Amino acid sequence: MYNAKVSPAVQVATPVRRAPRPVPTAHWVPTVGPDGRRRLSMQWSVSRRALDVPTPRAA
Q1: Which residues constitute the domain of residue 43?
Q2: Which of 26, 40, 53, 56 has the CA that lies 20 to 30 A from 11?
Protein backbone atom coordinates (compact mmCIF):
# COMPACT_ATOMS: atom_id res chain seq x y z
CA MET A 1 0.00 0.00 0.00
CA TYR A 2 1.12 3.54 -0.66
CA ASN A 3 1.57 5.93 2.24
CA ALA A 4 0.84 9.50 1.14
CA LYS A 5 2.49 10.93 4.25
CA VAL A 6 5.98 9.82 3.20
CA SER A 7 8.12 12.83 2.38
CA PRO A 8 9.83 13.02 -1.05
CA ALA A 9 13.25 12.95 0.62
CA VAL A 10 12.54 9.52 2.09
CA GLN A 11 11.32 8.22 -1.26
CA VAL A 12 14.52 9.39 -2.97
CA ALA A 13 16.72 7.81 -0.30
CA THR A 14 15.01 4.43 -0.55
CA PRO A 15 17.01 3.11 -3.54
CA VAL A 16 20.25 4.14 -1.80
CA ARG A 17 19.52 1.76 1.05
CA ARG A 18 19.09 -1.09 -1.43
CA ALA A 19 22.56 -0.55 -2.85
CA PRO A 20 24.48 -3.85 -3.04
CA ARG A 21 26.87 -4.48 -0.18
CA PRO A 22 30.57 -4.99 -0.92
CA VAL A 23 31.13 -8.54 -2.13
CA PRO A 24 34.11 -10.40 -0.66
CA THR A 25 36.63 -11.50 -3.25
CA ALA A 26 38.62 -14.72 -3.10
CA HIS A 27 42.32 -14.79 -3.85
CA TRP A 28 45.01 -17.43 -3.55
CA VAL A 29 47.81 -16.87 -1.04
CA PRO A 30 50.96 -19.03 -1.13
CA THR A 31 51.60 -20.51 2.29
CA VAL A 32 53.91 -23.13 3.75
CA GLY A 33 52.25 -26.00 5.56
CA PRO A 34 53.47 -27.61 8.79
CA ASP A 35 55.19 -30.32 6.74
CA GLY A 36 57.27 -27.70 4.91
CA ARG A 37 55.44 -28.06 1.59
CA ARG A 38 54.27 -25.03 -0.31
CA ARG A 39 50.55 -24.87 -0.88
CA LEU A 40 47.98 -22.32 -2.04
CA SER A 41 45.28 -21.34 0.40
CA MET A 42 42.18 -19.42 -0.62
CA GLN A 43 41.42 -16.38 1.48
CA TRP A 44 38.38 -14.12 1.35
CA SER A 45 38.80 -10.40 1.73
CA VAL A 46 36.52 -7.37 1.46
CA SER A 47 38.02 -4.14 0.24
CA ARG A 48 38.33 -1.74 3.14
CA ARG A 49 37.34 1.19 0.92
CA ALA A 50 33.91 -0.31 0.35
CA LEU A 51 33.41 -0.68 4.10
CA ASP A 52 34.51 2.85 4.96
CA VAL A 53 32.08 4.55 2.58
CA PRO A 54 29.66 6.59 4.70
CA THR A 55 25.98 5.77 4.29
CA PRO A 56 24.10 8.66 2.66
CA ARG A 57 21.20 9.95 4.70
CA ALA A 58 17.98 11.61 3.64
CA ALA A 59 18.09 15.40 3.81
Answers
A1: 22-49
A2: 53
Whole-model pTM over 0.90: no
Contacts of 26 (CB under 8 A, 6+ apart): 42, 43, 44
Count up the domains in the chain and report the number. 1
The CA dihedral of 34, 35, 37, 41, to the nearest 10 degrees, is: -30
**Any domain includes 41:** yes
Q: What percent of the chain has pLDDT over 70?
A: 41
Task: Round to whole Å and give the CA distance between 9 and 28.
Answer: 44
Considering only CA atoms, which of 18, 5, 12 is closest in space to residue 59? 12
